[in-house]
Design goal:
The protein has 4 domains: 292 residues, Nucleotidyltransferase, domain 5 (2-Layer Sandwich); 75 residues, Ubiquitin-like (UB roll), CATH 3.10.20; 117 residues, no CATH class; 120 residues, no CATH class. 23% of the residues lie in helices and 35% in strands. The strands form 12 sheets. The chain has a 5-stranded mixed sheet, sandwiched between helices. Strands 21-20-26-24-25 form a 5-stranded mixed sheet, covered by helices on one side. It has a 5-stranded mixed sheet with strand order 23-22-31-29-30, with no helix packed on it. It is rod-shaped.
Length: 721
Amino acid sequence: MLEQKKLFALDIGTRSVNGIILDESEGKYHVVDILVKEHTERAMLDGQIHDVLAVSKIITEIKEELEIKHGPLKKVCVAAAGRALKTERAKVTIDINGKPLIQKEDILHLELSAVQQAQAFVAEKHQSNKTYYYCVGYSVLYYRLDGEEIGSLIDQQGEEASVEIIATFLPKVVVESLLSALHRAGLEMEALTLEPIAAINVLIPPSMRRLNVALVDIGAGTSDIAITDLGTIIAYGMVPLAGDEITEAISDQLLLDFPLAEKAKRELLSHDSIMVTDILGFETEIQKDEIIGRISPALEKLSASICEEILSLNNQQPPKAVMLVGGGSQTPELPKRVAEKLNLPENRVAIRGIDAIQSLTLSEHITKGPELVTPIGIAIAAHKSPVQYKTVYVNDQPVRLFEVKKLTVGDCLLAAGIKINKLYGKPGLAMIVNVNGQNITIPGGHGEAPLILCNDSPCSLESDIQNGDQLIVEKGKNGHKAELLIKDLIDEIPTKQIKINEKHYIVTASLICNGTAVSPEKLVEDRDTIICKIPETIEDLLVSLNLHELLDEIRPFRVNLNEKETFIFPLSGKIYRNGIEIKSYHSFENGDHIVIEKKAAISVHEFAQHKQIMLSQNIPVSFNDKKINLRKPVSIVKRRGVSLLEDDLIQDGDHLMIEQGRLEPFIFQDLFGHVDIEIPSDSNGSFVLLVNGNQATFHSTIEPGDDLKIIWPVKTTAQNN
């Protein structure tokens, strides 16, 4: 004989409480009994127990009545109302530039940071402390790498990684008040589930949840909505209107008390006309179309409210289909109006009853209906995948968790309010340096992962936890400040091999840091300006090799003249690269043969020509019919106080002084410095000076080409005697 297990479940709604007993055997379920009792006062509001005593009283009545038929009931399966759930999306982006390949632990850290951000959003919207919201599950909507959607971030590298999640939260007070009501009724919570999960689990198998479907559980006072897509439940919502809205409209229009109005509402689903007896005792047959016309405003209000919430939860897009469950789903024309407002075919909006639940049978006295979907779903879902409470200690502080899924260390840290994004050590301070005119950022060391111990053993964020586990969490160490040597910053310091005047040299790039020559072993500091440069010109080459003598040879011929430097560029030493004459500003290549010729000394005369200095003035004249040049100095060149002749040599670097005279006309007297005067023996001692045949004096001016003569009168006989 097959062993049967008895399941007792409660569906605690806004207007009534449903008690249901099922027998389970090898995955098949049989509904044995159902008992419904309405609240006598306003004990529930929006799915949350506001009067624990009143609710526990009704639970006790249902328990005691069912125990008469089915024996003692000690444990019960219950559900937290879906309308109390809060869903929120959140996106987190992190910088991964220069970091190691992304691993699974990094992705989980990213996801949990997003969940914590969603938790903060929920708390902010509802002005509540976020630690009073349990995360009952989250789904990843997408990962992105550098802005592009990607299937997995594992082993990826780039500039930034991001994740967007959708998370669901349940206020702690909802669960706590539920536990209190059960305890007062003498019941122990065998299992807990969520109302939307209960209904979806029995109507929409996981294989169908990839479809975008809306499930609407229309109760008496509220309509709960859940949206599936992407293989999961993506959103929950609630509308504070439901079946009672329509029942009250029928009651007002037909003068019926509430129970008769409820009965009339259900009959309208399957009859074209119904018989009603109003509060005055008159029995009347009324056509369905007439009643619907009279309650149309209420129908319009309910259907519009439901559709607006569906669109809001589904990003303003209609879903592929809508399933209606709950007692309020039996409202006439509701499916048709929902389909019209969502622009869906009528066959895409349907009322689903318990006949859609597989492997389920009912006792003969139980009437099938959509109002039983959620209570039966609670029993089955709570049995198949029960939600339990666990207590874990995080850094010696107790944390109670609501286990919708397998709980991990990450879930415990969320529940403890620990900032996930603060657990990893901060990166070390980066440095910015300028290398050859380009700014380079040198990142600091990566922050270390946090130390997480479970019962004194290392674990990760995704490690499973058990009731009573002791967790120790320590923040990861911060990364060290960026630190490296100049040689680590520059991949390879370039070199060239050169031959200069038959001697071989190796030229190495110079390293200049902040204007000072440094070693490749120097530590780099923040804001350093570093120049790594191999000599480019012949002049740079000689400087780098300290060949100062050769450097002097290729520089312009230099003389200090009257305390001022003056240069004669054409007199520089000659430079030949591989046999071709070049200038000092020309470049060189690896393996070149350079020959440098020394510069020669120059005469005073050559120097004066280069510097356009007039050393003397000259004029041609004739003297006694002979051509001669008269010359007299204008400028006197001295070196160390000694006057130089025009043929004397000047060396590179000499210090010279020039004494410049005035240009004055030549006079007859200037002739005597250039010719020897012979006095004739027969001269009487007197003479006559002639310029161009005209008598002149010693101070008579002469011009170029003048004919000069000195006439000596001869002695007479008388003079001789």
